[in-house]
Amino acid sequence: MDPKLLEILVCPVCKGPLVYHRAALELVCKPCRLAYPVKDGIPVMLADEARELTDGAA
């Protein structure tokens, strides 16, 4: 994931910062507890495509 892209991407729900989890290929929004998938190097920034995090995740 390009570091410059990470600087400008925000959560589409709360506009908060995202953290890239390389092993899971996801961008995580901790306040919303949502994980957005990264498919073929492209972040899928749709709330409908996001995975809700469980208590142990994040």
TrEMBL record:
It comes from Candidatus Dactylopiibacterium carminicum. Belongs to the UPF0434 family. This is UPF0434 protein BGI27_14595. GO terms for molecular function: kinase activity. GO terms for cellular component: cytosol. Signal peptide: none annotated. Keywords: Kinase, Transferase.
